[in-house]
Amino acid sequence: MDTLFIRDSFLQLLSGVPLTLELTAFAFLLGLMLAMLIALMQVSRLRLVRMLAGSYVFVIRGTPLLVQIFLIYYGLGQFRPTLQSLGLWQFFREAYWCGILALSLNGAAYGSEVLRGALQSVSKREIEAAKACGMSGFLLYRRIIMPLALRQALPAYGNELILMVKATSLVSIITMMEITGIAARLISETYRPVEVFIAAGTIYLIINFLLTRVVSMLDWWLTPHLRGVPTTGNPEHAND
Amino acid sequence: MTEGANMQPVISLRNLHKSFGTLEVLKGISFDAHKGDVIAILGASGSGKSTMLRCINMLEIPTAGDVAVGGETVKLKKHGTGLAIGDQRQIDGIRSRAAMVFQSFNLWSHMTILENLIEAPVHVQRRPKAECVAEAIALLEKVGIADKRNAYPSHLSGGQQQRAAIARALAMHPQVMLFDEPTSALDPERVGEVLAVMRSLANEGRTMLLVTHEIAFARDVANRVIFLHEGVIEEDGPTDLVFGNSKSERFRKFISNSQQADRGQGR
Description:
The complex is a heterodimer.
Chain A: H1 3-13, H2 17-42, H3 47-62, H4 65-73, H5 80-86, H6 89-92, H7 95-121, H8 124-132, H9 137-167, H10 179-190, H11 193-222
Helix pairs in contact in A: 1-11, 2-3, 2-7, 3-7, 4-7, 7-9, 9-11, 10-11
Chain B: E1 11-20, E2 23-33, E3 38-43, H1 49-56, E4 64-69, E5 72-73, E6 76-79, E7 82-85, H2 88-97, E8 98-101, H3 113-123, H4 129-142, H5 158-170, E9 176-180, H6 188-203, E10 208-211, H7 215-221, E11 224-229, E12 232-238, H8 239-244, H9 249-264
Parallel strand pairs in B: 3-10, 3-11, 8-9, 9-10
Antiparallel strand pairs in B: 1-2, 1-4, 4-5, 6-7, 11-12
Helix pairs in contact in B: 3-4, 3-5, 4-5, 5-6
């Protein structure tokens, strides 16, 4: 194994990092918004709404992301005239947007399950106290239910973020030159897959390590109530 | 009571019924509470006293009957065999005027004590934040936990949490306070501090409805007692009269059983 070549590959692959992070950020945020909507639909009182959300999760989770990417990028090409008449072709002819769409849809399906569990875990007593204070509807969700649910969901959602980083490697297959895309090009030029993939794997590892730290810091910052009493000694005079 | 009888009642229940499935918990409850009344609602477990209290602020929707708070009758609409909320905004308004204190405190765990207190005044009643904060600190001083204002509920003892919950209810300037077994979840040595706060509220002339198992406390602070038995009002009258000379055999038995239980616990 040629360590010098690994270092060389590593430096070349770094040019793919911005695109990987961009895809991750876009898909993650879009996915999160969609996930919230779907999670709320899943806990709806209306059966039809619950079924719609349930079917979405069933289909997206039950099929491979790679198949979804192919379907969106290549499959939608068959409907080009229709998409053109709708003005959507600009969007779907770009591998970039097709990739983000597939990743977002996928992230939303998994994320909504995490959020649904978190929504259902919110204490009924705290919700009841909010109702008894005159809160209802959007205000109740914005001030009490969502803040509690998101804190509950955060550690598991951090997992989703890491999965998303790794999932972006799949869009290299539809011509995107992110880390894995560049790696594939380097291999086709040099025929040295081991070194190149070791370098690529290392970059993903570093990104995910940093993201994990960020998520735990966020979690720490958002949950002071789950930590112990700030001062020890006489509990009557804790704090201040 | 005598002068109150001429005024509009703060709470008025008329022929209130509530069923859970086939189980009828309330079988036609009617009474009025007037300004300054401190009404103790007593009864054995399962007599419907908590359910009755929760029907006043519509945490439970009655199956039939009328509820009025501050002279405003709650709008309910037919829904299947029972009733449903007719006007959510009206209910929200009524709920902020009839503040409830729960058995297990139900403070919002992600907010500090101070944030718990200003939450409803700022976001439901839309009062200026600075004013709410100043008032919240004064209320926390009143219940003796001003030093805990930046702590989270999980860092407080049960008694402190319940005092914070009472302060949270007071922060909304309620017309009436509904206490749903406020000391039942507390360690025995923490009961006294909560009762002391409630006693001071009663002495201020606040209108209070109090579901409790603390018979001695009820006898001491309430001016009126309502005794529920199997979903109907079995006894209703001024505290002295009811405790002194109740016509109800069941009430006398309930009191003597509770006293025996208290002695058994060495209270």
